[in-house]
Amino acid sequence: MNKQTISDIEVDGKTVFCRVDFNVPMKDGEVTDDTRIKAALPTIQHLTGNGAKVILASHLGRPKGEAHDELRLDPVAERLSDLLGAEVLKSDEVYGQEVTKAISEMERGKVLLLENVRFDPGEEKNDAELAKHFADMADLYVNDAFGAAHRAHASTAGVAEYIPAVAGFLMQKELEVLGNALTDPERPFTAIIGGAKVKDKIGVIDNLLDKVDNLIIGGGLAYTFVKAQGYEIGKSLLEEDKIDLAKQYMEKAKENNVNFVMPEDVIVADDFSEDANTKEVSIEEIPEDWEALDIGPKTRQTYADLVKDSKLIIWNGPMGVFEMDTFAGGTKAVAEALAGTEGYTVIGGGDSAAAVETFGYASDMDHVSTGGGASLEFMEGKELPGVTVLNDK
Ligand SMILES: Nc1ncnc2c1ncn2[C@@H]1O[C@H](COP(=O)(O)OP(=O)(O)O)[C@@H](O)[C@H]1O
Ligand SMILES: O=C(OP(=O)(O)O)[C@H](O)COP(=O)(O)O
């Protein structure tokens, strides 16, 4: 990586403003999944262990510049404290006198978590005043918030204008794993793209067609491609204005000698519900009033075989409506294949990560990215503002 990291810089005696992505799922005031908090621990422990005062900043949800009690970071501070086995100070302010006082009274090796930075209207506007307030608190900026690296906000980008700025370990790992996968891939290289966000993912497909050996399409995304091939898809998910693009991509796949793999059979349902009537049909036979909500058994086998024979597999987006047991089989089969392959496996995207977690395969994956939107934009070849602002090596 051509950006400086915390390994390149002395932190002893420094006050560090460290942006993390603690945008974690919560229910009734409790953190329900602490993956993102755990992922930031190596950076936090490196800083505290090497004599820095650590100021942590994160967003939670989308409060749009106003304080909302249910989006305060107190439960996150509590969980972080449990994980660190050490006290975590928590401020109710994003910046200001209370914060300044807490920092000046803090000992080295201690951690202070600021309030949800999106309570301040300047955060998402990348307001220079707010960025200066952040920079004034510290000697060094560390960005470890890979999940928010595609946002140009005051705490993810603006602050880096004023003090030295380096990447944390999580940021470094995410960029290296995803970067290596894309720039110097082991082959056969297979990408599996599914889910429902056709608009968001179509750009990734374009970029991946220049890099992969196999491009496997599943989930709701598949049916725009099936339609583009001239088959009827009943009431399955369709992005009408992307049909021409889908055709272009299938052409591009041929030109680039990419094995473009689509479902050959599917599970169709007469209703979008768990107890709908279902049947297995070939892709040419989707009935008019039915919708395809999962890939069928032959397709699962084909996809699993390709995964088994690949050296590198990137997976983004479930193969079916996996939240309903009736349509979870395809996603489960692909997750199982990834868990069993000897190839290197990379999972990106909130729902795919949740699926491997739900099915108990998370620990069998080589890398489960903490960024959904961020990993997609990275794979699309877009610049991530939260990375661009960091100091070059
Ligand atoms: N055949 C399908 N029809 C409709 N929705 C689908 C289908 N297959 C998957 N989905 C839905 O796609 C959603 C996930 O899509 P997406 O957000 O693009 O994935 P990710 O978060 O992994 O990037 C899930 O809620 C799932 O129910
Ligand atoms: O959860 C996040 O994005 P993700 O769901 O795409 O991984 C990040 O914390 C970014 O949050 P945002 O999309 O509100 O800027």
TrEMBL record:
Substrate binds at residues 21-23, 36, 59-62, 118, 151. CDD domains: Phosphoglycerate_kinase (cd00318). The keyword Kinase applies. ATP binds at residues 201, 323, 349-352. The keyword Methyltransferase does not apply. It comes from the Bacteria. The modification Phosphothreonine is found at residue 299. It is found in: Cytoplasm. Pathway: Carbohydrate degradation; glycolysis; pyruvate from D-glyceraldehyde 3-phosphate: step 2/5. Its main location: cytoplasm. Pfam families: PGK. It is an enzyme of class 2 (transferase). GO terms for molecular function: kinase activity. It catalyses: (2R)-3-phosphoglycerate + ATP = (2R)-3-phospho-glyceroyl phosphate + ADP. Its EC number is 2.7.2.3. Keywords: ATP-binding, Cytoplasm, Glycolysis, Kinase, Nucleotide-binding, Phosphoprotein, Transferase. Monomer. Belongs to the phosphoglycerate kinase family. This is Phosphoglycerate kinase. The gene is pgk.
